[in-house]
UniProtKB/TrEMBL annotation:
Amino acid transporter transmembrane domain span: 42-424
Example GO molecular function: L-amino acid transmembrane transporter activity
Localization in the cell: Membrane
Residues passing through the membrane, by range: 49-68, 74-94, 115-140, 160-180, 187-208, 228-250, 262-286, 306-330, 342-365, 371-392, 404-425
Main location: membrane
Protein name: Amino acid transporter, transmembrane
Native species: Corchorus capsularis
Membrane protein topology class: Multi-pass membrane protein
Amino acid sequence: MEAMSNEGSSLTAPLIEEVQKEGLLESKLEEVDSISAHSSARKTSVFRTCFNVLNGLSGVGILSIPYALASGGWLSLILLFGIATAAFYSGLLIQRCMDADSTIRTYPDIGERAFGNIGRLVASIFMYIELYFVATGFLILEGDNLQNLFPSVEFEVGGLYVGGKQGFIIIVAIIILPSVWLDNLSLLSYVSASGVIASAIILGSIIWTGAFDGIGFQHKGTLINWEGIPTAVSLYAFCYCAHPVFPTLYTSMKKRHQFSNVLIVCFVLCTISYASMAIFGYLMFGPNVQSQITLNLPTEKLSSRVAIYTTLVNPIAKYALMVTPIVNATKTWFPSHCNKRFLSLLIGTTLVISTALVALAVPFFGSLMSLVGAFLSISASIILPCLCYLKISGIYQEFGCEMVSIWVIVLMGVTVVIFGTYTSVVDIVGHL
């Protein structure tokens, strides 16, 4: 499998790292954003690594965070901070796993070092399934926001009536399709690497709308809603799903001993950003806040349009970066004599069609991202790093505070997986 050409700086271009042995590619997921690949000769500074981690943690999850708070109530903010703390700690465990074995360079490598080929396979499966559903979520997000901008638009093709949202999903899929055929995604890389900037613009626009465009912050909200806690925790977890890219960022650093400090800064800044969006969004719209806060905004206001247009641009650029690792991994299943270019076109087109069909069949952004957060993000970002560290370090054989703490995190993660996944599936089925 060919490594993707990427000449851009690590500060602006996304990561698409080639994984050796089985030819699997590793990529950041979003609300998941990707960051640029580095050769061993091009080491990055602490600042660039900090930017890259921030970019990885900044994604479409920020749009759903007010809905998560509305689902769980004010006290669920404690769970947001708990998820952030657990995700930060699991990031440190990934660093320790890599320090224990210098041959580890990617996320699947950690799984293989801990549990052999099965570990590599499980880690890779979680990454690729999450990428697939995040790409699907992009299409749903585009359909929702375009319908919000043009509510009266309907489509009729050959006598067949197509609703506005469904029509927009199909149109966006057609627009995105050529980007999946590209061999060089460096141009899209620069656009998609603006996750930090996009999140800041959206947050600023939301606050401006509330403060100066007549909406205000008058809703008091609910202290706690027990029924909505699983949904809230699942969406909180979706915001912290950058861990599969941490190994590559760590190996790319000039000063690796500073990586823990980078994680502290990035997790604190991102958590402040997410908490701010959740609080302001909930105060603005209360229990009526939708799964994407942009759907609540008055479209006639300039600040609202800035937030909506920013929301619309990034997913179009990111879509190809999400599915390209899946395309390249799938190509390894075919004999080496097959035409790689034809396979790329075929697999890429199939993925676009399939994600569009899933988006049309399950057009529920909040419920789908809740499912991704509960089942995939918790597993890939918290449970797997903890289990791999226990195995690689060998501390599972020794009873102590560290072992107990890690097992507590694992058990909490498993609880979220069970209840969050169940709640999300029931919610999706109930909407069908």
